[in-house]
Amino acid sequence: MSKTIGDAQSEVIDFLQSGRAFAAPGPVEHVQTHCAHVFLCGDVALKIKRAVRYDYLDQSTPDLRHALLNRELSLNRPTAPMIYRDVVPVTRALDGGLELNGAGPAVEWALRMRRFAADCEMTAVAASGRLTDAVAEALGQAVRQFHATCPVLQDRGDDLIRDILAELGRVLTPLAEDVGGGLVGAFLDRSRQHLSTLAPILRDCAAQGHVKRVHGDLHLRNLLLIEEQPVLFDALEFDERLATCDVLYDLAFLLMDLCHRGLVRQANIAMTSYLLAAKGAEDTGLSALPLFLSVRAAIRAMVLLQTDQATGQTGASSDEARLYLTQAVGYLHWARPVLIVVGGLSGTGKTVLSRDLAAAIGACPGAVHLRTDTERKAEAARVDYAPTARGAIYDRMLARADTMLTAGRSVILDGTFLDQAQRGAAEELAARLGVGFCGLWLTAPQPVLIQRVTLRRGDASDADAAVVMAQAATAQSVDVTGRWVSLDANGTGEKTRAAAHAALESVLGTVGDGTVKA
Which of 210, 294, 212 is nearest to 252 (CA)? Predict the structure, then answer.
């Protein structure tokens, strides 16, 4: 439940909206959320906390709002120093009016920020088609780098999620008729069942240091793209416990938001990039990702409905809230994981195909794409194509695939797989875990491969013409049969992708949405 504290802020809102608080004259844009008012004018942004009390948040007095703004400043200045400036008072002037940062007594407090260009907002980046594969990859890396700096906290991972589910139950149950379809009940029932199963894993993750004081509100509206680099801002400041969670639960908000916007490919790339940067540390926790995604979607539905109430627009967001809850229930549907191996000589397009396939394989946001070249560079500064070094990378990649598949996440392995022992090990792994398997072997004429690797720029692979020729000599003895399908990769990427989809359907079976079927 929520309570708006009368018209206590109406005078302050009128003052800030008038433009008198800004040094440069100009129109003022007023943006409202369920817990804040933001006023934009020129290159300045002023933010005040809304005078409201929720079950989980109390902003009912100026002192409480002041403390929250100070906390917001301290949390966000390290990640976004180009935006966050200071907290200043709205004061009573001698003539009885209001002024910003005057000598009189404070009646309200405002967070002063440098206004950023609207096209820097990650929501605008996504809407304009600029959230490319490279940006999605940078997002995953940036979030992992941020998590590496977050302090580890001692708390039970299952209790944290249990408390969130309890809060969602209290808030959403009275609003169930606004979205209809029995969605609230279905979400609560299934999420509680999943939590019961996952509780031991969440406790183990917490014991291993995966529960931290994180961002807490990591969706696209709280991300920027400045000079082609993702910037995190507007971290959750009002409740330390809500901002204390498993790092994958923090990441899940970003992944869920991308999927909600139809950017499943970008979500998949961000997930894979994050896991690569984590160097295997988060692989086991992937078993909880469906629950984390579901809870994050339900939270967005709750916030939409609460914002409608706070702004006097009850029902305005019911359709989108209904979609969020439909997705929340969908995330909790089980999908049998599969292992797909994409092999072939350097230059056959293994990585392009693997990335194109990944988002449509297994549970949303798809399969994790593990690549020998990126695994090699994540582990060592130099690139070594010697058989011993190569074998160690394959062993590591297969071990990671074992962990991820056991956690219920599908995996695509991307490497040359020239050695029969490595191909056999992948098949044996799938058989031992009881998951589906398909190998795709890509081929193309040697001159085409040499041309492709010679023209490559900025790729993790360092293979050159000499490497291709050496591989070609070895590949003459490669025999791919059984659950391996040989594909001609001499044509366009679209043609290779279509042939790959047909092969997967033949070997594994598919459903209409492209997710590999059990």
Answer: 294
